[in-house]
Amino acid sequence: MWVERLKNTIADQTEITSDNDTVERLSKDAYWYSPILYKELNGMKAECAVFPKNEEEVRTVVAFAVKEKIPLTVRGSGTGNYGQSIPLSGGIIIDITQMNQTVKEPLHL
């Protein structure tokens, strides 16, 4: 499965988890406020989550996802409502909360 290939690709540098509780929590926002969205989005989640600490780690994960045609959902520490950050087709959550430095140049992927 592709999750194992991703783990082998990034394990030495980037934290990755496929722990069900963690992935479930990161796959959700406050979509349940809407009864319509609850029916549509309940049960949708990613297969894994990664926690890059720098630009290079993001590049590695994005390159893997593009090559393998795996959906990406980026999450930060803000709040979200109404299904705006639910992984609709599984895939990888990139949790960027460990990227906590100000950079002077734009991120170049």
Detailed description of the structure:
- It is a single chain.
- The two termini are 26 Å apart.
- This protein is of the alpha/beta class and 109 residues long.
- α1 runs antiparallel to α4.
- The protein contains 4 helices and 4 strands.
- The longest helix has 14 residues, at 55-68.
- A 4-stranded mixed beta sheet has the order 1-2-4-3, with helices on both faces.
Number of strands: 4
* Relative helix content: 25-40%
- The coarse silhouette is globular
What is the topology, as strand order, of the major beta sheet?
1-2-4-3
Poorly predicted parts: none
End-to-end CA span: 26 Å
Provide the structure class.
alpha/beta
Strand content: 5-15%
Overall average pLDDT: 87
Please work out how many helical segments DSSP would assign: 4
Please describe the topology of this protein.
Elements: H1 2-10, E1 15-17, H2 20-26, H3 35-41, E2 48-51, H4 55-68, E3 72-75, E4 92-95
Parallel strand pairs: 2-4, 3-4
Antiparallel strand pairs: 1-2
Helix pairs in contact: 1-4
Short description:
With 109 residues, the protein is of the alpha/beta class.
Throw out a few tags for this protein:
single chain; 109 residues; alpha/beta; 4 helices; 34% helix; 14% strand; globular
